[in-house]
Structure formats: C-alpha cells, structure tokens
Amino acid sequence: MxxxxxxxxxxxxxxxxxxVATDRYVSEASFVVRGISSSRTSGLxxxxxxxxxxxxxxxxNVVQNYLLSRDAVRALEKQVPLRSYFSPAGADIISRFPxxxxxxxxxxxxxxxxxxxxVTQQPSKGISVLRVQAFEPAQxxxxxxVLLKLGEAKVNEMNERAHGDAIGSAERDVDGAETILKNxxxxxxxxxxxxxxIDPGANxxxxxxxxxxxxxxLANTRAQIAQSSKNAPANPAASALETQSxxxxxxxxxxxAKLAGSAAALASKLATYDRLILERTMAEKRLxxxxxxxxxxxxxxxxxQIYIEEITEPNLPDxxxxxxRLRMIATFLVFSFALTAVGWLLVTGSKEHVSE
Length: 356
Prior knowledge:
This is Capsule biosynthesis protein. The chain has eleven helices and four strands; from the N terminus they run αβαααααββααααβα. By secondary structure, the protein is of the alpha+beta class.
C-alpha cells in the first residue's frame, strides 16, 4: 500500500518536475488604484474602508476582476499572439496550451489564462500585484505590459462614463436655459420691430414731459387771460390768448391719449414690454444658475476620477521560478502519504470490525 499510495506518485512527480516540466518565467508588476480625493478621508470613510466599503477599494476590485475576465483575454488576443505564447514547440504536453485533456476553444484558453495570470491585493497597503507566467521572459513581460494598459483603458472608460453621467444632466439644463433665453430675446426683438419702439417706458417718460410742459404753458396762458380780463376787458389780445389756451388743452389731451385709453396707447404696450423684460431677466438668471451647476458638476466629476498608478513596471525575468519543483515534489509526497494513511486506517478499522 505504501509503495502504491506514496512511492509511485512521488516517483512520478519527481520524474515530471525534475526532468520533464518546462521552465516558466514570471513577470511581476505592482499598481494601485487611486482617486484624486483619496488622500483625505473622513472618519466615517475610514470606518467604511475598514470593512472594505471604500470607493477606491471597490474600483480596485473592478480593475482586478476585469484583468481576470474573458473581456481582458479577448482584448489581449488582439494585441499579442496569446495562443502561440502559451503553446511553444518545446513545452511539455502538461504545461502547454492546449492541455492534452482539453480542447482549443476560447473557454479552454480562458481556463489556461487563469492558471498563468493572477492579480492579488494587499488590503493593508491597497497595492495590487500582477503576476504573469510564460515560457519566455520577453513574452511574460509583454503580456503584463498589455494587461496594465488594458486596465488603464478600463479605468479611463469608467471615468468617461461617470463624467458623462454627472455632467450630461447639467449640460442639458444649460442648453435648455440657453434656448429659453434666446426665445425671450427673440420675442422682445419681435415686439420692438412690430411696435417701432425700443423702450415704451422711455417713450412714456417723454410724453409725460411733454404733458408737463404743455400744462405749464396752459397755466401761464390762462393766468394771462385772467389778468387781461381784469385789467383790460376789451384787449384785442385776449382772443389770441384764448386760441393759444385751447391749443395747449388739445395738445395735452392728445398726449394723454398716447399714454392710455386705447389699444394703441403706451400703457398696453408697456405692460407687454415689462412682461417680456421680466421673462428675459428670469431666463438670464436661469442660465446663470445652470452654468454654475455645470461648473460644480465638472469639479465633482474631476474629484471623483480614478487612475492607475504603477508602483513597479513589469520586469524582464532572467531566471525561471515556475514550476517550484522541490515544493511540488514535497506536496505530492505529503498529500499521497496523507491519503495512504487515511486509507490504511480505514482498511485496518474494517478488518478489526470484521474479526470482531
């Protein structure tokens, strides 16, 4: 039992890992996903971060999951000959792709990829480590470099999406406010062109000044008439003064008719003009508020942006570190010994039970 359970598996592992297994080279790179506002954290955010609920930690998980996703493998295949990298001519049939018990489908490639690429995090430091195994040092480095670029592209895509969500609504509000202001200005211009008036209020002031001037002249004329009638009733100039007084009165009535009393009077036009001015003023204030909100949204979008900061670039390994031959042989020895011991205990126990 010991020979079958321990000796043969250990001998097979010794032969494979000692003489058959092809060397693999590992290229490592470390990076961190940061936010512009991640340097200053409140006590509540630190509390959430303790339980892994901080936004930067979530973004790190997103990047890690993407690098280990099928989408990343598809994007990686477009930039490097991944299948040829994983299936060199001199590699053993167990280590290379495709494995002898599997096919060459994309799912088989993805399963093999997960065995050769790993992304681990150091929660206490927030650092992620990317490890890529390949049969050639340059190939391992090339895959790692492309994966980091893909991760950065994914982060940029996330930033653009968040930027569009945060700013899109504010930009639509600005466009709507600009349209309303343009319509208000056009309505005011149409009114001025139709009525041949720039400012009805200014015209009304001019009419009032004319009325005041005519009223003053009328009062003076009537005073002269009264004085003439008292001092010289037969004065021939009295009739001229009466005619002048009547002209002043008619002028005052004409000017008053311009102010009110009909649909063409300035009063009705002034009401329409004031309404148009009020609409334009409100549209200007609305546009100013929308522009201010857009600026705040842009600042918030910039504050929420994240980026990948490379701590160490992918290295070019000069020595193979995989497979770990002694560790794998020892693992087979310990594992097979444990299984054999369990089997021996079961067999012994069953024999004792039968003998009883």
